[in-house]
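Whiteboard transcription, Tuesday session. T.W. wrote the structure tokens on the left side:
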């Protein structure tokens, strides 16, 4: 009887120690992984800022994913800065710009764009469209044209 009990205990211990561990990947881990693959890259033309869908200027935003640098054309001046991404969270660092005088709508568009970049905390990419949001509020929508690597420049120089 003792022998049978000892043999049974030995079998149970051997089997429990040799079982494999399964790794469970949660939905949020899978979402972060797929979002990491969707890091914005290239030049996007801004089509919407907050509720305004009638943007008269060709505003652009360019993401360089190899250096985490952002740049673009804000209606009158070019701008530049850094960004960080973690999953679908995006944060822009201090944004600098050229200092050309801007009057009227160009100045308004530029200030609005810089305010938006300061508030943005997340992004989504759907095909050739990037949406920058604060929480659930859409702040900026931009489209990447096929082969769009143009960027507005100062004096013809990049």
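and on the right, the sequence the group agreed on:
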């Amino acid at each position: 009887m003792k022998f049978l009990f000892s043999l049974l205990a030995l079998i149970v211990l051997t089997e429990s120690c040799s079982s494999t561990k399964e790794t469970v990947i949660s939905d949020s881990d899978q979402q972060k992984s797929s979002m990491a693959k969707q890091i914005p890259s290239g030049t996007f033309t801004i089509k919407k800022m907050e509720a305004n869908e009638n943007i008269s200027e060709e505003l652009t935003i360019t993401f360089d994913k190899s250096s985490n640098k952002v740049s673009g054309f804000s209606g009158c001046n070019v701008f530049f800065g850094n960004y960080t991404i973690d999953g679908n969270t995006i944060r822009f660092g201090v944004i600098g710009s050229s200092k050309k005088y801007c009057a009227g709508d160009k100045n308004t568009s530029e200030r609005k764009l810089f305010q938006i970049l300061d508030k943005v905390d997340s992004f989504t990419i759907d095909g050739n469209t990037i949406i920058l949001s604060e929480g659930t509020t859409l702040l900026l929508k931009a489209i990447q044209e096929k082969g769009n690597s143009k960027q507005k420049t100062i004096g013809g120089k990049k």
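Someone added at the bottom: The longest strand covers residues 78-86.
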